[in-house]
């Protein structure tokens, strides 16, 4: 904490008076943590602890809570993105790597199809091309695609990195511990920015959206996959029942952690609905902002472009 | 010994050329430099200015602000809370170099 204060004093000479307010070093405004009311700083800490606690069981819990459907949602996100080889993706709050691995698989197949099409048109290869085809590296199986996974939680990144090693992902993948509200990346760098089931846990969503805008190249796409609001009243009732009665119990049984999953369910209810999030994304400067409901609004994919 | 064997194993698993530490063989804090491709986009989260990779302490240094971000287990910790002021001595765990 002393380091923080030293740094802030050093930086106060810059026109960054708002740095104090942003850092919430004072008591700070009240915010929600699920259904509780906490200060900004408390909220960050509590959320960090939630994910530190669930990290190892994160994937198992996702499968149990959503009956495996979260995989389909993530696949749909990837199809919507439809990345071509050479795409540079920043996956924020990407902890355990689900989106990153899907991205790598997707561009790898796209690259294979690309190469096959090339070969079809080049029935008579030159000696140079034949020579090159014997060098696996030259073929560049990902076509220079790259994904950077950024997460604020060390435990989630650890799980992600272990998964990557276990599943054999190494090329085109890197891991960074960083804050979505204050990204350690240069401006105008990425083709796509994704945040899947993460934006709900960000304390200052407006800052995260501004940072997303900043790091994207002109023409870049913002994609957000997140739990959203169900408008159908009957479905909404069933969804509530499932959420509040079943999920925390699953959390206790599978992960030994009722409270974290109680937070999860409450945080979904507190998060702005589709139209509100759309407005926030537009406020950050994105154009052609739109959303697609999945499963009647249980989940929504928001998309926007930096033009 | 056994520890050295474990390091070798980890090195093999590291894939794309990022596992070239000094092989000090002491505990789990073996320095892993960051992916070279990452250094193209990584900047200081506070000032958004470029960083310099310091191999000796395995840190990313912002000379202007005088702060250094540690790289732990090959993952750069790019949050201000993790940074240290460069006029202070580096932490003990970073100096296990032969």
Tell me what you see in this structure.
The complex is a heterodimer of chains A (307) and B (98). With 307 residues, chain A is of the alpha/beta class. Chain A has a domain of 164 residues: Vaccinia Virus protein VP39 (Rossmann fold, 3-Layer(aba) Sandwich), CATH 3.40.50.150. Chain A has 13 helices and 9 strands. In chain A, the strands form 2 sheets. Chain A has a 7-stranded mixed sheet, with helices on both faces. The longest helix of chain A has 24 residues. Chain A is globular and about 70 Å long. Chain B is of the alpha+beta class and 98 residues long. Chain B has a domain of 50 residues: N-terminal domain of TfIIb, CATH 2.20.25.10. Helices cover 16% and strands 17% of the residues of chain B. In chain B, strands 1, 2, 3, 4 and 5 form a 5-stranded antiparallel sheet that branches. The longest helix of chain B has 12 residues. Classes of the chains: A alpha/beta (307), B alpha+beta (98).
Short overview:
The complex is a heterodimer of chains A (307) and B (98). Chain A is an alpha/beta fold and 307 residues long.
Which key terms come to mind for this protein?
heterodimer; A: 307 residues; alpha/beta; Rossmann fold; seven-stranded mixed β-sheet; two-stranded antiparallel sheet; 13 helices; 9 strands; B: 98 residues; alpha+beta; N-terminal domain of TfIIb; five-stranded antiparallel β-sheet; 2 helices; disordered C terminus; SAM-dependent_MTases_sf (chain A); UbiE/COQ5_MeTrFase_CS (chain A); UbiE/COQ5_MeTrFase (chain A)
Low-confidence stretches of chain B: 1-28, 93-98
| Count of individual helical segments of chain B | 2
Structural class of chain B: alpha+beta
Number of strands of chain A: 9
Fourth-level CATH superfamily of the domain at 68-111 and 145-228 and 271-306 in chain A: Vaccinia Virus protein VP39
Amino- and carboxy-terminal Cα gap of chain A: 40 Å
| Main sheet: strands, sense, barrel of chain A | 7 strands, mixed
Mean pLDDT of chain B: 70
**Shape label of chain A:** globular
Report the total helices of chain A: 13
Keywords (chain B): Mitochondrion, Transit peptide
InterPro entries (chain B): Trm112-like
Main location (chain B): mitochondrion
Protein name (chain B): Protein preY, mitochondrial
């Amino acid at each position: 904490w002393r380091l923080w204060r030293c740094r802030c004093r050093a930086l106060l000479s810059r026109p960054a008076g708002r740095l104090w307010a942003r850092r919430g070093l004072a008591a700070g405004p009240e915010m929600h943590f699920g259904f509780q009311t906490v200060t900004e700083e408390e909220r960050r800490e509590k959320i960090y602890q939630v994910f530190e606690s669930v990290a190892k069981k994160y994937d198992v819990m996702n499968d149990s809570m959503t009956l495996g459907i979260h995989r389909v949602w993530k696949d749909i996100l990837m199809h919507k993105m439809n990345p071509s080889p050479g795409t540079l993706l920043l996956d924020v709050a990407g902890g355990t790597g689900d989106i990153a691995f899907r991205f790598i698989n997707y561009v790898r197949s796209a690259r294979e199809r690309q190469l096959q099409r090339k070969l079809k048109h080049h029935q008579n290869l030159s000696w140079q091309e034949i020579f090159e085809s014997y060098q696996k590296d030259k073929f560049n199986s990902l076509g220079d695609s790259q994904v950077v996974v950024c997460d604020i939680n060390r435990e989630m990144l650890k799980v992600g990195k272990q998964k990557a090693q276990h599943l054999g992902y190494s090329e085109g993948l890197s891991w960074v511990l960083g804050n979505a509200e204050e990204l350690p990346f240069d401006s105008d760098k990425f083709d796509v920015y994704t945040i899947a089931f993460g934006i709900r846990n960000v304390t200052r969503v407006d800052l995260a959206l501004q940072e997303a805008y900043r790091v994207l190249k002109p023409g870049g796409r913002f994609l957000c996959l997140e739990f959203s609001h169900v408008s159908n009243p009957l479905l909404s009732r069933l969804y509530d029942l499932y959420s509040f009665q079943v999920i925390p119990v699953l959390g206790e049984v599978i992960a030994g952690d009722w409270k974290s999953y109680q937070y999860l369910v409450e945080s979904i209810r507190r998060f702005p609905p589709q139209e509100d999030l759309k407005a926030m994304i537009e406020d950050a400067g994105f154009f052609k902002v739109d959303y697609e409901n999945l499963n009647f609004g249980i989940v929504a994919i928001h998309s926007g472009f930096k033009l | 010994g056994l520890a050295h064997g474990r390091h070798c194993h980890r090195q093999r698993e590291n894939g794309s050329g990022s596992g070239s530490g000094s092989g000090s063989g002491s505990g789990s804090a073996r320095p892993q430099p960051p992916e070279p491709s990452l250094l193209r986009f990584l900047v200081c989260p506070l000032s958004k200015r470029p960083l310099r990779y310091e191999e000796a302490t395995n840190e990313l240094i912002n000379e202007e602000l005088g702060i250094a971000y540690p790289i732990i287990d090959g993952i750069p910790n790019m949050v201000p809370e993790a940074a240290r002021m460069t006029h202070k001595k580096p932490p003990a765990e970073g100096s296990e170099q032969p």
